[in-house]
Amino acid sequence: MSLPPIDPPRHLLLATPEGRILLFGLLGVLLLAIGIGLAWLVAPEQAFTYIVMAGLNLSIGRAAGMSFGYASGLGHEQVIPINMLIETVQVIVVYPLFALTWTHLIDTPRWNALMGRMRTAATQHQGRVQRFGILGLFFFVFTPFWMTGPVVGAIIGFLIGLRPWVNLGVVLGATYVAIGVWALLLNELNRWLGAYNQLAPFALVMALILLALSGKLLRSPRNGHRPT
């Protein structure tokens, strides 16, 4: 007769590097919420722009979020640090949650299902990244293709055995470089298309993203019939 599983003590969370990273990430979420709340009290229209930019980054990607920021009249001094902050907080919350779920320090059906989907997304690219190690992970996060963002990159780093702080250093370093490159590209795009309409660069970026998503959806049924 098998014994029922024993839940590990919750104090063990803070005994792990991932638990401490998660605590730091949750503190970042709190400070971010306080900052947005204060900005809403002082300048609600600008705060609303920040919220939409953050939402687009989290739901679609940095290209959508940053292009919306520039289309709304924000400059590099606002778009770059805000998107860096959003992606940093996203990584240092979701990555440790994945690691703690993997080791069963966090063990609930809802989190297991969510992290299972993220693991599936990561394992699709794990082989290519693992072949080149840290350099492969850096370029995986840096490249602007669908599902190559910092969260998936951090999960791949965990799966290939990188130490937590090395993993975060590589992933966040690649993220910051990518945001800088996107800022330069979108600035040029705004310079070329902004003369016609302020929202034209944002519309073009969104059209390209929707085109990429459509191609992914069209390919998925065929992929589903491939033998495993």
- Overall body shape: globular
Strands, total number: 0
What summary fits the major beta sheet?
Answer: none
Mean pLDDT: 81
Give the CA-CA distance, first to last residue.
35 Å
H-E order: HHHHHHHH
Poorly predicted segments: 1-8, 221-228
Helix run count: 8
Whole-angstrom Rg = 19 Å
Q: Structural class of the helices, strands and pairings? A: mainly alpha
Helical residue percent? over 70%
Give the tally of structural domains: 1
Beta-strand portion reads under 5%
List keywords for this structure.
single chain; 228 residues; 0% strand
Describe the protein.
- The chain has 228 residues and is mainly alpha-helical.
- It is 78% helix and 0% strand.
- The chain is built from eight helices and no strands.
- Helix 6 (150-159) packs antiparallel against helix 7 (164-193).
- Residues 1-8 and 221-228 have low confidence and may be disordered.
Secondary structure: elements and pairs:
Layout: H1 17-42, H2 44-59, H3 62-71, H4 76-102, H5 109-142, H6 150-159, H7 164-193, H8 200-224
